[in-house]
Each structure stands twice: as structure tokens, then as C-alpha cells.
Write a structure and sequence with these properties.
Two copies of one chain form a homodimer. Helices cover 35% and strands 17% of the residues of chain A. Chain A is built from nine helices and 14 strands. A seven-stranded mixed β-sheet of chain A has the order 2-10-9-8-5-3-4. In chain A, strands 11-12-14 form a three-stranded antiparallel β-sheet. In chain A, strands 1-13 form a two-stranded parallel sheet. The first copy, chain A, is globular, with a radius of gyration of 21 Å. In chain A, 55% of the residues are buried.
């Protein structure tokens, strides 16, 4: 195969080469059945085993307790923005949201269609450059749940510690699931689109505590009730088979790498390399406040927009792809998810040094 | 590659080998970019071109008029069961449904959550073995739309001609889209899950007349408004990239085969081979009435359940896979979608003759 480039895309993001090569074989002929994975009945024993294996690996790697269901849903993480309040709230009921970026803001907008939403914290006026500490917000006693986004892909912030509450805790972990150890039992519901740390686009994982399955109001469309999918092992209708398969392959790879704890160690090391370079002078400036820095997405600026454009263009030429920042804050952004190799970060750091030396502000 | 088996699965169903082989290459390294298709940003110029190409090919092959939008959605055809009435009906408004099988029945159930549903025809008492002729039902003047399922995968029935109405016509074409020429301009909305005639599971195509985009009630969640996806070219959030790509590859293949008209001719020929065998004696009995027979799914019975089990087992041994009928009517079923080769049907017919000769009732 030809040379791989280093793909800093924020999502869909880089996947392990081993996974791509295995998928390449299985797409045409799955386990010598003479049928390609993507044309195989979802009710076949072969695919049922794939789905079961994906769920079991996720349970093992995240140590998901038995009283939680794992669902493989469609519609992207964006569909969870309304499904959560649709299932868990109701007229007159309250929920609390922490507004730390674009995705929490969108989730708040959808939740307002279903209940009374209290925004207990917002860093919007500081262009979302930080997440709150525990003493910066409080959750009303009549609130049903506290909702937060664990890692903010666009602004490069991440909760170093999770909020603590006696209410239900709900988290969008789309961009940092499986990147660090977490205690699932502290949560009521965790969800994540697959296309950053887990696989290709097309499937969203929902990890939900079983008792929450009973809260859905009557007259909710069948496909929008969590219970529908929980009761049928995510096979109520045809699931997104290829995406579920590919997540399973990523999880196998992750297990071979040593699991989530090993990933966390590497992720810390990779991010430090890059933050150290950013902090080494005034040429590069990180967007996030230091205490809120993300290990997954690292947005940074150069002295001028012209230099940023030149930086991105020249980086692309040397095989460092996808470094353009999100349009909402501009600049550059390096997304370095689980599957992003350390060598790519080292190469970026070297490139940053050279670029600074030859492009004085 | 190893021998392919003939895959009669009702869906996900068989795909052209050329498509599988192209996908196998692109998954690892898309167009020599050094990035695999399934890890590529959906905002990259490469993927944007893929999505655009898929839409343009579908427009060309189905001759979709300019005043229709083509959407690539997630959630399966089952999600359209509620999205249609959620967007197009409203309290006190009426819609008319033709109940010709499991999928129309499920659609009726969901529609009842949103409006007043009139079931103008049902063949449920005859185990859904037929579809109605035009004089067997009428549509109330106060009805907003007439909904029908073009082809009933489980029961093997298909509308030989489409209903005519001065109301909006809506059709679930999940199991026969692109299998025969249709006049899209007669319809308000057509939808189809990809995994039978168009590609892998994970994407649902919605073809919707533009004026219908304005009917959605306020307070509908953003992700559930057709307009959201229409306005953003199905890129409001991360789309199911691989499935959209694979549909595009299937459409390229279909175009090379001569387009929809050529497919229709072949589909008629393939189905005739099988129906002729069924009709040649009393050993095999088709489930559907002759005037309602499907060109896509052909359920049939043998003299006894024991013989059916033996038939399916021995067929599998000679490379004829997926012939088990749906649990709701049992027996056997051959699904012979666009990509199913004529040689596979010929092999099945030969096998049926041999089996009958050596297994007298």
C-alpha cells in the first residue's frame, strides 16, 4: 500500500492500519463464507456474532456494569440531543446543562423542546476556552439530570475530572470515549458517535442504566424509545452493520494495545509533546486555558492568519493533513485520537519548530 | 478470491462483486490520498465529491425532477414510519394507508401517534398474499396523503401499477427502488433503506418534493425536520459516509448495466424463470396471488415443513444461501434483487427440479 499520511482530522478521524486492512478483506469475503460483510444478513449467525463481539469488547474495555445496556444506534450523536430529553424529561420537568461549546449548545436547544432547561454554567463569552470547576455551578434540587460534554472537539477543552452530582449524570463523550479510564457506574447515560475514537461514521453508542429505560413517555415513536433497541439487542430493525463491525475491529486493536489505561498513558504523552511545543515560546498560542486542555483536540494559533494559512498548506505538503481549525475559531487544530500515532505528533512538532524558524512573525 | 455463493438474503442483500472489490481498495486508501475512505473527513473535498456523485447518479438513473430533494438519512426505513407523519401531518389531520404487510402495519402504528389514520385496504386476513387493485379502496377527500409499500419483502407481493390519487402519494420502496422504471413526479415522497437494491445497511434515501419541506410543525427536533437535511445537502451532521459511498458504487455499476430500464427487463426474466418452475406443478406453491407477485422476493412452500427444512439445508450445501422464509409465514423465500445474477436463479431452478424428483411428497 502507498504511504499513509498523518491524518489530524477531527472526525471521521484516523483509524489503525490493521483495522483498515482487515476491513478491506472482510468487505469482499467475510470469514471465507463467500459473502461480503456488507451484503450479509444482519440475522445471519456470522453477523450476530460480530455484533455480540463488539458489545462484549466494549463492555470489557470500559468495564461496563451488568445493569447497563449498550445500544448501537443511528442518527449520529446529534440525534441524542433530542432523544435524551424525549426519553428522560417531560413537560414541566427540569434538567441542568453545562454549556462548554457548540455541541452542548445544540443539545440545550433541543432539550428546551421537552422540558425546563437550566444552563448552570457557560463559557460562551470566553469563546468556550475553558470548562468549569466543581464550585462554578450548582444543580437545582428539582433537576432530573446534569448534562455535560466530556471533551469539546472544536475548542479543545476537556473535563479533567467529571462533575459530581446526586442527580443522574449524562455525558456526550463523542470525542474522548475510550481515551481514558472512566467509572461508568457514576453515569446514567453516556453516548458517543463512533467516528472519532471508535470507528467510522454511521453508528452511535449509547450506554444506558437499565432503570432509565422505563422513563419514556407513552406515545413516543417506537424507534425513538431506548427500550425498543435495548429489548432487541439493537436489532429491532436492520442495524448499520459495517459500522458496528468496524467498531469491533477497532476495539480488538485497542485491546491488543493494552486497553484503555495504556491508551490514556499514550494520549497524555502525545498531548504533552504538542503542548510543550506550544508553550515553548510566543509564536504558537493554544486556544484553551491550561487547566481545561484536551488530550484529543489541540487548537492553536500562529501570529497572523496569513501565517496560519501558510502553515496548513506547507504541512499538507509534507504529509500532515487535516490541520485546519474549525471555522468558528479559525487557526489550526491537531486532533490526536487513540489511533493517531505518536510519530505523527513528533513529526508535527518538528515541523512547527522549522516553520517558526523560517517564518518570523 | 474464493468462490462466491449465491446469496438470496432479503436484506442486507447481495451486491455486485465489482462494487465489493472497489470498496475493498478504497477502505484502505481512497484515490491514493494515503487516507482510507472510512477515516476521511466528511468535509474533505474528496468525500464531498463522493456524496455529490452519489446524489447525481441517483437523480440521473431515476430521472428525479429538479423540484425534488434527495436526502441521505440514518435510522433505517423504520425511522421514516414516524418521520413522515411527524413532518406532514398534525393533530386532527387525516392520512390514508394501504395495509399490505408487516412494514405498512408498522408504519400505520407510528402514524397513529400523529394524526387520524384511515386504513383504506387491508389484506391481513389473507396473510397479506395480495395488493389491492385501484377499485378496492378509496381515499377520503380530507386525507393529506396516500401511503403504500411498493413491494412487500416478506409476503412477496408488489404493486404492478401504482395507486393514482389527487392527494400526495407516498411510497416505501425499500425493496424495489431502482428495480423498475417509475415516474417520480407522481409522488410527494419516496423512501428506501439502501440494503436491498442500493447498497449496504446504514443509509436511507428520501426523495421529497420541495414544497413538503415547509409543512413541518414548529417544535420538531432539528434532526427530525426534513428541511434540516435538505438545506445542508445531508451534511447537517456527520453522514454515514461509507454507506453513501457504497450506494454510489452500486449506482455506477447499475448505470454500466444499462440503467433502470435494463434492470427491469432482467428482473422480469429472472422472476419468470422462478415463477415458471413454481407453476410447473403442485410441489411448489407461491405465497402471493399471481396478479400481485413480486419480481424481487419470491416466497414459496413445499408439501411439508420437513421437506422445506431439508430443501433449505441441501440448497445451502450447494451454495444457494439465505433461502429460509420469514418466520411470519415460514417456508422458503428467494430474494433476487438487481445485483442477484441470473445464473443463480438458473441454479436454483435446476436444484428445485432435482429436489422434487428425489423427494416425493
Amino acid at each position: 500500500m502507498v504511504d499513509r499520511v498523518y491524518n489530524f482530522s477531527p472526525g471521521p478521524g484516523t483509524l489503525p492500519v490493521d483495522v483498515l486492512q482487515q476491513a478491506s478483506r472482510d468487505v469482499v469475503n467475510f470469514k471465507e463464507t463467500g459473502i461480503g460483510l456488507i451484503e450479509m444478513s444482519h440475522r445471519s449467525k456470522e453477523f450476530m456474532a460480530v455484533a455480540e463481539n463488539t458489545e462484549n469488547l466494549l463492555r470489557e474495555l470500559m468495564e461496563i456494569p451488568d445493569n447497563y445496556k449498550v445500544l448501537f444506534l443511528q442518527g449520529g450523536a446529534s440525534s441524542q440531543f433530542y432523544m435524551i430529553p424525549m426519553n428522560l424529561l417531560g413537560n414541566g420537568k427540569k434538567a441542568t446543562y453545562l454549556n462548554t461549546g457548540t455541541w452542548s449548545k445544540k443539545a440545550i436547544k433541543e432539550a428546551k423542546l421537552f422540558g425546563d432547561i437550566e444552563v448552570a454554567y457557560s463559557s460562551e463569552e470566553q469563546t468556550f476556552n475553558r470548562v468549569p470547576t466543581k464550585d462554578e455551578y450548582s444543580v437545582g434540587q428539582d433537576s432530573e439530570y446534569l448534562y455535560f460534554v466530556s471533551n469539546n472537539t472544536i475548542y479543545g477543552t476537556q473535563f479533567p475530572e467529571f462533575p459530581e452530582t446526586d442527580k443522574l449524570l449524562i455525558s456526550d463523550m463523542s470525542s474522548d470515549i475510550l481515551s481514558r479510564k472512566i467509572d461508568v457506574s457514576k453515569f446514567g447515560l453516556i453516548f458517543a458517535g463512533a467516528q472519532k475514537n471508535m470507528g467510522p461514521a454511521g453508528v452511535t453508542i449509547v450506554i444506558i442504566r437499565e432503570d432509565l429505560l422505563e422513563k419514556t413517555p407513552d406515545n413516543t415513536p417506537t424507534m425513538l424509545c431506548y427500550k425498543t433497541h435495548a429489548d432487541k439487542g439493537s436489532m429491532f430493525n436492520t442495524p448499520p452493520c459495517f459500522a458496528i463491525y468496524a467498531v469491533g475491529e477497532v476495539l480488538k486493536w485497542l485491546k491488543k494495545q493494552g486497553g484503555v489505561a495504556a491508551m490514556e498513558t499514550r494520549n497524555i504523552e502525545k498531548a504533552e509533546l504538542l503542548y510543550n511545543q506550544i508553550d515553548s515560546g510566543d509564536y504558537y498560542r493554544g486556544h484553551a486555558e491550561k487547566d481545561s486542555r484536551s488530550l484529543m483536540n489541540i487548537p492553536f494559533n500562529l501570529p497572523t492568519a496569513e501565517l496560519e494559512a501558510k502553515f496548513i498548506a506547507e504541512a499538507t505538503e509534507v504529509g500532515l493533513n487535516g490541520l485546519k481549525g474549525h471555522r468558528s475559531i479559525g487557526g489550526c487544530r491537531a486532533s490526536i485520537y487513540n489511533a493517531f500515532p505518536r510519530e505523527g505528533v513528533e513529526k508535527l512538532v518538528a515541523f512547527m519548530k522549522e516553520f517558526e524558524a523560517s517564518n518570523k512573525a
